[in-house]
Design goal:
The chain is of the alpha/beta class. It is built from seven helices and twelve strands.
Length: 242
């Protein structure tokens, strides 16, 4: 069973509804349900326990994990979603960690690492970040490099995640982690190719017990994107396949 959640603004809602038709047309789904709510707290009460969710705005993941209560989470995303100002699609993971909806998290593939404004703080506790490209952070007065997907082997990154998070995880894949030419999400895209994303998903599946997963930030742009359709189908197949 797959649960579709057309959550968020109109582009996200239309993107999720279109995805149903896309997956049906390619004979990839039969049984599915649609859960509609624009209140993330109510979403936590309405969403069923499922293995796979396809959602619009990434804030919906916050509602899902409040229902599932996984011990740890891996977020594959072009953004850290650790802004700590108010609860939305750019801060849901910060609030999930602060409220201990999950104990620990890892973010793989982000490009944007800094707060958007001077008044916005960045949550840093109980989370590890593995950027798509080389990045540095200032720790105790010294600049230290993050372990990035470009400078470290996949084996080392997955091992680091496994030792930090434990075996059981919830996996969320924000489609904006892909390069701009895929044209799936509303906002700026990341730096991963589809092949790199599929490799990352494959290694996560081999090394973790995935309690449940979601595919997030699908907008109506996908209707006009051949590469976006291909990417969505292949990511969905990689996640739900054996």
């Amino acid at each position: 069973m797959v649960t579709f959640i057309p959550f968020g603004e109109k582009p996200n809602k239309e993107g999720v509804i279109y995805t149903i038709e896309l997956l049906k047309r390619n004979k990839l789904i039969e049984d599915f349900i649609i859960v509609e709510s624009n209140n993330v707290e109510l979403l936590a009460d309405r969403v069923p326990l499922d293995k796979c969710y396809i959602i619009g705005e990434h804030l919906a993941t916050y509602g899902i994990i409040k229902r599932i209560k996984p011990p740890s989470i891996i977020s594959v995303d072009a953004h850290t979603d650790l802004m700590h100002d108010y609860l939305d699609h750019g801060s849901w993971l910060a609030y999930a960690l602060e409220e201990k909806v999950v104990n620990r998290a890892a973010v793989a593939g982000p490009v944007l690492m800094i707060p958007t404004t001077e008044r916005t703080s960045l949550w840093t506790r109980r989370v590890k970040i593995f950027p798509a490209l080389p990045r540095s952070k200032r720790t105790r007065g010294k600049w230290r490099a993050y372990r990035s997907l470009k400078t470290s082997s996949m084996e080392k990154i997955i091992d680091n995640m496994r030792r930090y998070l434990g075996e059981e995880i919830y996996l969320t894949v924000d489609m904006d982690v892909l390069k701009p030419e895929y044209k799936i999400a509303r906002f700026q895209h990341g730096e991963l190719s589809l092949e790199e994303l599929l490799e990352l998903i494959s290694e996560i599946k081999k090394n973790f017990k995935i309690i449940a997963c979601d595919i997030a930030e699908i907008s109506d742009k996908i209707k006009r994107s051949k590469l976006g359709k291909k990417a969505l189908i292949e990511v969905y197949t990689a996640l739900v396949g054996e």
